[in-house]
Amino acid sequence: MATITTYTVPEVIDMARRAGLDKVADRISYLHELPLENDADPMNPDSARSLVSFLIKHHQKLPETGITMNPEGHVHGDWEFTKDSDVEVQFLPSGDVWFMYLDIDQDTGSLRAREEGTMAPDDMLKKIMPLVNCTA
User: Fold this and answer.
1) Residue spans of the chain under pLDDT 50
2) How many domains does the chain have?
3) What is the DSSP string of the chain?
4) What φ, ψ does residue 45 adopt, rounded to 5°?
């Protein structure tokens, strides 16, 4: 029988620091300490762990990560690959991600491409990297 490891948000922050991802650790710490608004849920530690695990594995292939949190407590990563292409990823507590890739012509405002879906993080990266002309 498999053992399920549960982390707390402070443990996830420590995991990021040990991996040298201090900016990521600082941002998660900041979001975790923010007062909750209205009916917002606290940060989900499994969502935060999923983001940190993904970044430990792939941060060298990605531009700087913007990190936010939604009212359900799920952590989001956002990457701007070019001035026209952006990827937003919600790290779900299940370990999967929901992502949206947008390619918008900044001169005209027209949408050139859009992809979205829910899948494993590595599968998502394999799907979006050709769209942003990068290799996974």
Assistant:
1) 1-3, 136
2) 1
3) -PPPP---HHHHHHHHHHTT-HHHHHHHHHHHHSPPPTTPPPPPHHHHHHHHHHHHHHGGGS-PPEEEE-TTS-EEEEEE-SSSEEEEEEE-TTS-EEEEEEEE-TTT--EEEEEEEEE-HHHHHHHHHHHTT---
4) -65, -30
- Specify the pTM: 0.88
129 burial level (CB within 10 Å; 0-12, 13-18, 19+): middle
Is 4 within a domain? no
Q: Is 21 a member of any domain?
A: yes
* Cα–Cα distance, 18 to 76 (Å, whole number): 21
Measured CA to CA, the distance from residue 52 to residue 133 in angstroms comes to 24
- pLDDT tens readout for residues 77-87: 999 888 888 89
Tell me if 136 is assigned to some domain: no
Residue 1 within a domain: no
pLDDT at 55: 96
For 26, the domain range is 9-131
Short-list 71, 91, 94, CA closest to 24: 91
The predicted pLDDT at position 6 comes to 77
